[in-house]
Specification:
Length: 505
């Protein structure tokens, strides 16, 4: 083909512009742990757990102290992160194992459409749409991940954490394109299978949370949980070293978080702090920000908008989160005053909502008459068995006995700073009336504006309370948000204090 000098010059300019645009785009590695509370990492103050690589990552990063997931079940939390939407705004995906609806913008797919190589490795658990390589997710666009490898592993076969795929993804990526890697672990999900990492923690080293009974069985259970975290930490270290070896570490944004809290009573599936407060670590290239501690309130739905902004992409209208980039240079800059979370069906019928604001946590329970002690893996294990024996003997503290409370309060209010274990419900105390009224209004407004709904025919339990066995013939009911068509609602509800309207307006 003969080209004129003008055409050749134009092509050269276009190629140079494209190369420079790609060179300016940061890479992204998102690492998500499974069922890990923020309090269970060394960089968050736990001296008994061995997390040297995460601790180093935290020293080189922004470490967030008030980051909250939007759901306390695996798949709703991950779907929410993927779409930057509240779980009930995903309707079917609001409940455990519910399918992620098609037709939504997923931030990894938007990156892929922009030229990024996008890959997933390890645990998926975010619905059928995103994790099938041939599925169409956003209209005619291709799937969110160019390469996808789910890893529902086989216990006893080794590599149960799923992290063994991570280095393969990193080493086999295209060298000429920016990349986004979603690296997900099965650690520290039950059942325990830490293989070569088993026994790294002695029961005497663990920190027994106040909601658990300090027994030898509980300590061994926690030690095994720590072993799983240690295996995850090992693989995080391998990823960091590989990024250094490839010479791309300083062009890569690394994000680490967990999908929900530890798989123990009053943590996973609960919207108390142990269930919703996630470790969040973001390592930035030096050109984007400096390491430090961020005490600003943030939500997991804020990560999608943040990644897109760093990549130079506009956020879609369906996103309900906000970008965290203002915090990168000035960590004290508030980006939100409210963080909302929800607890929906997970083995047991529930509909509980949380709003975190300042020092306070306000909970609203639509089914206070329904007993929902936790998930199967939190209520049927050695730590839970110790609590059951203590409950029968009448020796538990109120916070330890809380999961046995069959009729729950319709509302709860806690001053989390003064009462970090959330033992003292302030909802009916006269001195808390003004705070309670304000947070009620914030919750009312959020539920109304986002289309949250309480199903008339909710999903029933699939588990027998007494034995933990699954019921045959289980069928789902109606998920929250279905009756209001919340999938089509994009309003985020109040984000800043000024967004809350006075009652009646």
């Amino acid at each position: 083909m003969n080209c004129s000098p003008l055409v050749l010059t134009t092509l050269l300019v276009l190629c140079t512009f494209t190369f420079n645009a790609q060179a300016m785009r940061p890479n992204f590695v998102l690492i998500i742990g499974d069922d890990i509370s923020a309090a269970d990492l060394g960089c968050y103050g736990n001296r008994g757990v061995r997390t040297p690589h995460l601790d180093r990552l935290a020293r080189e990063s922004l470490r967030f102290t008030r980051a909250y997931v939007t759901a306390t079940s695996c798949s709703p939390s991950r779907c929410s992160l993927l779409t930057s939407r509240y779980p009930h705004n995903l309707e079917t995906a609001a409940e455990l194992h519910g399918a992620l609806p098609g037709g939504l913008a997923l931030f990894p797919q938007l990156l892929r459409n922009f030229g990024y190589f996008t890959a997933h490795a390890g645990k998926a658990h975010f619905g059928t749409q995103a994790n099938q390589g041939v599925q169409r997710v956003v209209g005619p666009a291709e799937a969110a991940f160019e390469v996808s490898g789910d890893g529902e592993p086989v216990p006893g076969k080794g590599g149960y954490g799923g992290e063994e795929q991570w280095l393969h993804r990193l080493r086999n990526r295209p060298a000429d394109r920016p990349f986004f890697l979603w690296l997900a672990a099965h650690d520290a999900h039950r059942v325990w299978d830490a293989d070569d990492f088993a026994g790294r923690h002695a029961p005497a080293e663990v920190t027994v949370p106040p909601e658990l009974l300090d027994t030898p069985e509980t300590r061994q259970d926690l030690a095994s949980y720590y072993d799983e975290i240690h295996r995850l930490d090992h693989h995080v270290g391998q990823v960091m070293e590989e990024l250094r070896r490839q010479g791309v570490l300083e062009q890569t944004v690394i994000l680490f978080l967990s999908d929900q809290g530890r798989p123990f009573p009053r943590a996973k599936t609960q919207v108390y702090e142990a269930g919703v407060l996630t470790p969040l670590i973001i390592r930035l290239p030096k050109t984007l920000g400096d390491p430090g501690v961020v005490d600003a309130l943030v939500s997991s739905i804020d990560l999608g908008p943040t990644v897109l902004e760093l990549a130079g992409l506009a956020r879609p209208a369906s996103f309900q989160g906000v970008s965290l980039t203002p915090l990168f240079r000035t960590p004290r800059t508030p980006v939100r005053d409210f963080a909302f979370a929800e607890r929906n069906w997970h083995n047991f019928t529930t509909h509980i909502r949380l709003v975190r604001h300042g020092d306070y946590a306000y909970l609203r329970n639509a089914y206070p008459e329904r007993w929902a002690p936790g998930a199967s893996e939190t209520f049927y294990n050695p730590s839970a068995d110790a609590l059951k024996a203590g409950y029968a003997a009448g020796t538990l503290t109120p916070v330890q006995a809380d999961i046995f409370q069959k009729v729950r309060p319709a509302e709860e209010l806690y001053d989390v700073r003064a009462d970090p274990n959330q033992e003292h419900n302030l909802i009916d105390r006269p001195g808390s009336a003004a705070v309670a009224a304000f947070l009620r209004q914030a919750m009312d407004q959020w539920q109304a504006e986002t289309g949250d709904s309480v199903p008339e025919h909710p999903t029933p339990p699939d588990t027998d309370y007494a034995t933990g066995r699954k019921f045959p013939g289980f069928q789902r009911g109606t998920p929250p948000g279905a009756s209001t068509h919340a999938l089509s609602i994009h309003r985020p509800g109040p984000i800043r204090t000024a967004d809350v309207r006075k009652p009646g307006l």
